[in-house]
C-alpha cells in the first residue's frame, strides 16, 4: 500500500527472478528508517522496517478486515510518499496488534513469546527506545530527561511500566515483520535464490544501538552528540566529501570485549539473509573521522581500524562468513590485503570503467573471478541516465568496447557486458532491466530529499524482459 511490501508482489518478483534464471537478489538494508528515509540511517541495526509488513497478510491471519485495506488513495505510481504511507499504514498496524491481543491462538502467542526470548539482546532496548521516541515526539535520545539519557535503572523501570502496551506493540510488529520476511526468504531459497543483505558500517546517532550502548561510540560526554563523525573525503561523488554524521566506534572498547556487539549484529543479519554485503568495507582497515563542529568532510583524518581482529573474531565464533566487500572509493593496498586475507569478493562497477584507458580496473577484461560486477549500484545513476550524461568521446569508448551499441539500448549492452565477464557474480539493478532514465535513480549521495523513493510496478517486468534476461543468462552459462 503505497510502498513495496512483503505481500504477493514480492513473491511475484521472486518468480520473475526464478523464471529468468537469476540466483541472487540483493536488497537494501531492511531496518526502520529515520530522517530522510535512508536505509543507511536507521533507528536500529537489528530491527526490521515495519512499513514493509503486508497488510494483506495480516488480513489473511484475521488481524484486519478486507474493508481496512480500502484506504489506499493519493498514492502516485512509481514513487513512495512516506508521509502518506505512515499516515495510512501505521494506524492499521496498531489495529492489527489490538486484534492480535484479542484473537491470537495459543500457538501464535507461544511463537511470539519465543521470538521475544531469542531476540532479547536487541529487541527489549529497541522496543523501549521506539516507545520513548514517540513520547518525546521524535526528539533525539540525548535530549530526553537525564535519567533516560544515562539509562538510570530506576528511571528505565518506571518508563517500562508506563509504556508497557507501546513496548509490546513494537515487539509485535518486529515479530510480524520477521515472520513475513522469513516466509519470503524461504520461498526464494526454494526457488534456488539467495538473498544478499546489506550491513551499513555505521549506525545512526539517534538509534537504539547508540542509546543502549553509548560506551561503544565516540560521544561528547556533555551533550551526547557525536564527538567524532563518520564520512569519506572528497571523491567521485562529492568535491567536499561526504559527512554522514554517524558517531565513530570506540574500536578499542569493542576489541576489549571481543566485539560482542558486532557478533550480535552478524548473528541477527544471518537470520534475515544468506549473503552479506558489508558497506564501506575500507572503513574496517582505516576510516575517515571528522571532528564535531565541521560542516563538510574535507577536514578529516584517516585512523587505523582493527579489521583483521574483527573478522577473525567473527570467523572463530560464527564460522566462515558469506561476506561481500563493498570496496569502492579510495582503496589502498592495505584494504585489498584485508579483503583478500579473508577471501571476500570485491565489487566492480561498469559505470566507472570507461574514463581512464584500457587499464581501468573496472573494465571486464581486468576483473578477477572473485568479485561481483554491477552495471551500477543504488548510489549510481541508472545506466541510461549515466550514458546520456557522459561525453561523446566516452560514449564512443563504450560503443567500441561492446562492439557497437545495439538497437536494444545501452542498458542491455551493459547487462550483456556484465554477464559475459569472468566475475563469479553479477547484479543488475531493476532500473537497468527496464531501461529507465535518471528520474528513476535511487540515491544521489550527499544530497537531501528526493532519494529512496523510486519503486517499480509489478507489470513493468514483462515476459519480454524475462525471456531476454534468461536468454543472456543461458548464453553466458550463469544458470546454475
From TrEMBL:
Keyword Transferase: yes
GO molecular function: 4-alpha-glucanotransferase activity
Pfam family, one: Glyco_hydro_77
UniProt keyword annotation of Transferase present: yes
Assigned EC number: 2.4.1.25
SUPFAM superfamilies: (Trans)glycosidases
Catalytic activity: Transfers a segment of a (1->4)-alpha-D-glucan to a new position in an acceptor, which may be glucose or a (1->4)-alpha-D-glucan
Keyword annotations from UniProtKB, A to Z: Carbohydrate metabolism, Glycosyltransferase, Transferase
Secretion signal, residue range per the UniProt entry: none
Tree of life domain: Bacteria
GO BP, sorted A to Z: carbohydrate metabolic process
Family annotation (PANTHER family): 4-ALPHA-GLUCANOTRANSFERASE DPE1, CHLOROPLASTIC/AMYLOPLASTIC, 4-ALPHA-GLUCANOTRANSFERASE DPE1, CHLOROPLASTIC_AMYLOPLASTIC
Similarity field: Belongs to the disproportionating enzyme family.
The protein, known as: 4-alpha-glucanotransferase
Amino acid at each position: 500500500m503505497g510502498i513495496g511490501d512483503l505481500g504477493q508482489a514480492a513473491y511475484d518478483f521472486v518468480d520473475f527472478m526464478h523464471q529468468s534464471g537469476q540466483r541472487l537478489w540483493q536488497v537494501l538494508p531492511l531496518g526502520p528508517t529515520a530522517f530522510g528515509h535512508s536505509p543507511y540511517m536507521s533507528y536500529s541495526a537489528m530491527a526490521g522496517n515495519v512499513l514493509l509488513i503486508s497488510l494483506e497478510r495480516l488480513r489473511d491471519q484475521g488481524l484486519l478486515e478486507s474493508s481496512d485495506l480500502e484506504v489506499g488513495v493519493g498514492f502516485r505510481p512509481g514513487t513512495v510518499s512516506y508521509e502518506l504511507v505512515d499516515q495510512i499504514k501505521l494506524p492499521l498496524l496498531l489495529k492489527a496488534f489490538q486484534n492480535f491481543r484479542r484473537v491470537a491462538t495459543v500457538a501464535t502467542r507461544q511463537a511470539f513469546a519465543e521470538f521475544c526470548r531469542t531476540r532479547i539482546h536487541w529487541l527489549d532496548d529497541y522496543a523501549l527506545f521506539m516507545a520513548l521516541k514517540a513520547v518525546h515526539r521524535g526528539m533525539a535520545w540525548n535530549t530526553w530527561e537525564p535519567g533516560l539519557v544515562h539509562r538510570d535503572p530506576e528511571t528505565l523501570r518506571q518508563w517500562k511500566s508506563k509504556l508497557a502496551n507501546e513496548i509490546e506493540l513494537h515487539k509485535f510488529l518486529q515479530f510480524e515483520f520477521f515472520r513475513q520476511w522469513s516466509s519470503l526468504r524461504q520461498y526464494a531459497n526454494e526457488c534456488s535464490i539467495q538473498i544478499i543483505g546489506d550491513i551499513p558500517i555505521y549506525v545512526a546517532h539517534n538509534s537504539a544501538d547508540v542509546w543502549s550502548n553509548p560506551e561503544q561510540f565516540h560521544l561528547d560526554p556533555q551533550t551526547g552528540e557525536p564527538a567524532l563523525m563518520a564520512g569519506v573525503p572528497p571523491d567521485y561523488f562529492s568535491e567536499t566529501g561526504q559527512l554522514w554524521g554517524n558517531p565513530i566506534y570506540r574500536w578499542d572498547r569493542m576489541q576489549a570485549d571481543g566485539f560482542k556487539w558486532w557478533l550480535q549484529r552478524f548473528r541477527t543479519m544471518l537470520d534475515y539473509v544468506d549473503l552479506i554485503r558489508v558497506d564501506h568495507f575500507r572503513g574496517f582497515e582505516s576510516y575517515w573521522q571528522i571532528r564535531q563542529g565541521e560542516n563538510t568532510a574535507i577536514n578529516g583524518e584517516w585512523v587505523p581500524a582493527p579489521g583483521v581482529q574483527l573478522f577473525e573474531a567473527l570467523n572463530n565464533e560464527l564460522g566462515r562468513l558469506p561476506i561481500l566487500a563493498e570496496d569502492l572509493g579510495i582503496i589502498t593496498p592495505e584494504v585489498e590485503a584485508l579483503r583478500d586475507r579473508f577471501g571476500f569478493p570485491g565489487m566492480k562497477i561498469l559505470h566507472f570503467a570507461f574514463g581512464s584507458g584500457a587499464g581501468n580496473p573496472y573494465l571486464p577484461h581486468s576483473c578477477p573471478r572473485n568479485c561481483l560486477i554491477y552495471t551500477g549500484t543504488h548510489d549510481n545513476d541508472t545506466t541510461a541516465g549515466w550514458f546520456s550524461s557522459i561525453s561523446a568521446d566516452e560514449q564512443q569508448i563504450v560503443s567500441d568496447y561492446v562492439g557497437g551499441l545495439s538497437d536494444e539500448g545501452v542498458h542491455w549492452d551493459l547487462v550483456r557486458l556484465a554477464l559475459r565477464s569472468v566475475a563469479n557474480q553479477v547484479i543488475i539493478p531493476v532500473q537497468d532491466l527496464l531501461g529507465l532514465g535518471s528520474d528513476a535513480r535511487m540515491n544521489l549521495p550527499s544530497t537531501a530529499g528526493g532519494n529512496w523513493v523510486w519503486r517499480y510496478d509489478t507489470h513493468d517486468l514483462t515476459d519480454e524482459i524475462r525471456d531476454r534476461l534468461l536468454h543472456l543468462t543461458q548464453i553466458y552459462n550463469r544458470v546454475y
